[in-house]
Structure formats: structure tokens, C-alpha cells
Design brief:
- It is a single chain.
- The strands form 2 sheets. A 6-stranded parallel β-sheet has the order 2-1-3-4-7-8, with helices on both faces. It has a two-stranded antiparallel sheet with strand order 5-6.
- It is globular and about 50 Å long.
- The chain contains 10 helices and 8 strands.
- The chain is of the alpha/beta class.
- This is Putative signal peptide protein.
- InterPro entries: AB_hydrolase_1, AB_hydrolase_fold, Sec-Metab_Biosynth_Hydrolase.
- It comes from Labilithrix luteola.
Length: about 240
């Protein structure tokens, strides 16, 4: 029995690498205004197994059904954590959607010719950061310059182990999925986003946006999450 407003699914938002959950604030406010119960996971991004465990702890505390949303590396986390019984639908926001045995590392191993190369600095003590001077251009080109600078200067070091974490059982094989392609993404090339979305059988929406589309285009992001929520409601009736 759901205690949610209008028996709507609740929404759980999972951030990606180099950032924390605060970037979801615009999306959070829109979903809350529409009556959704929303929780934001703060993953340490040390390892995939750890992030999946942290995400599952949040899922455990919610009443189902849940729409589980991931941005970027968060897509890997939701692909694994989405097997949780309360999760009714998945939403990928310019995110990795790995198959069994795949990781961020394998998915980025052979970039297509001419694809922009993310300005990831060499690992330091097992952690990665983006070059601060190139952060805005590669990650957040359509975010307000002062906000992009803040994101660059508040980066969360991303564990090399998290990049290597491979999915054991992709939740998109058993749950409906939705995918928002950011057409000006310079971190995950849009053709790669489209092919992962197609493979997952996702309902796809495309929007003009950078990799930080969840910050710059909260309306488009909230809209696809609400589409996933409608599908989750229909499936659990």
C-alpha cells in the first residue's frame, strides 16, 4: 500500500561521477511542485558495489513503487540497484546503461573517431578529476558560467574502482526504461547514448543540452521522469 500523494511512485535521483547530488535541485523542485516524493542519493563514488549498496539503503526506506533515475555514471548504479523489488521504472539522463559484464571503463574504451575526449586528469591515488579549466566546456557548457565554475571547483574525486565496476544483472532487461539523450553532450557522445538506449529498449526523448542537462534543462529532465512515473503507475495498478 503506497502512502504517496495520489499513489504516485516516489522518485530517487542518483548523481554521476565528479559531482554530488546537489545538481539535482532544479529537477527536485519541479517534481516536488508536482506532488512527487523525491529523495536524492549521495553516493561516495568509491566503487560500484558501494554505490549500489548506498542506493539500495535509500530504496529500502521508501514505499514502492519507485522510479530510479541516474545521470552519467549514476546510470551504471541504477542498472544494478534497479533490480530492487520496489523499483518499477528506470530513467537514464545522459547516462551509461551497461549490459551484463560492462562497466564505464569498457563502455568508453573505444571512442568513435572525432568524438570529444573528456579532459580527465591522470589518476591520483586511485581517483580521477576533470581538468578544472576545461570542466565547463566538456561537462557543463550550457550551465551558467558561475555555476559551472562552482561545479568544477567542488568536484568529487571519482574512484577508478567505480569506473571498473561491472554490472552483474541489468535491471533494464526486466523493468521499463526511459532515456533522455543530451544532443550536445561532450562527455558521453550522443551516438553512444542512442545505442545504449536502443539496446535497453528504452523510450527515448532527445533534448538540446550538455552533459549537465540535469542542471541546465530541469524541465526536460523532470518531464521524462514523470513519463516514467506514469508508466510505473500503470504497471503496478
Amino acid at each position: 500500500m503506497s502512502t504517496n500523494h495520489n499513489h504516485r511512485p516516489s522518485v530517487v535521483l542518483v548523481h554521476g561521477g565528479f559531482v554530488d547530488g546537489s545538481g539535482w535541485e532544479g529537477v527536485y523542485r519541479l517534481l516536488r511542485a508536482d506532488g512527487y516524493d523525491v529523495t536524492i542519493v549521495q553516493n561516495p563514488t568509491l566503487s560500484l558495489a558501494d554505490d549500489v549498496a548506498v542506493t539500495k539503503r535509500v530504496l529500502d526506506q521508501k514505499s514502492g513503487p519507485i522510479v530510479l533515475v541516474g545521470h552519467s555514471y549514476g546510470g551504471v548504479v541504477i542498472t544494478e540497484a534497479g533490480n530492487h523489488p520496489k523499483v518499477a521504472a528506470l530513467a537514464y539522463i545522459a547516462a551509461f546503461a551497461p549490459d551484463k559484464g560492462e562497466s564505464v571503463q569498457t563502455l568508453i574504451a573505444n571512442p568513435p573517431p572525432g568524438a570529444p575526449v573528456p579532459p580527465i586528469l591522470p589518476p591520483q591515488a586511485g581517483f580521477l578529476l576533470l581538468d578544472r579549466a576545461k570542466f565547463a566546456d566538456s561537462f557543463a557548457a550550457d550551465v551558467r558560467p558561475d555555476q559551472a565554475a562552482f561545479m568544477a571547483d567542488s568536484q568529487v574525486p571519482w574512484g577508478v574502482e567505480a569506473l571498473a565496476g561491472a554490472v552483474s544483472s541489468p535491471a533494464w532487461k526486466t523493468k521499463p526504461s526511459f532515456y533522455l539523450v543530451a544532443t550536445s553532450d561532450r562527455m558521453i557522445p550522443p551516438p553512444a547514448q542512442r545505442s545504449m538506449a536502443k539496446r535497453a529498449g528504452a523510450t527515448v526523448v532527445e533534448t538540446e543540452g550538455s552533459h549537465a542537462v540535469y542542471v541546465s534543462k530541469p524541465n526536460a529532465v523532470a518531464s521524462i521522469i514523470e513519463q516514467a512515473a506514469a508508466a510505473a503507475s500503470a504497471a503496478t495498478r
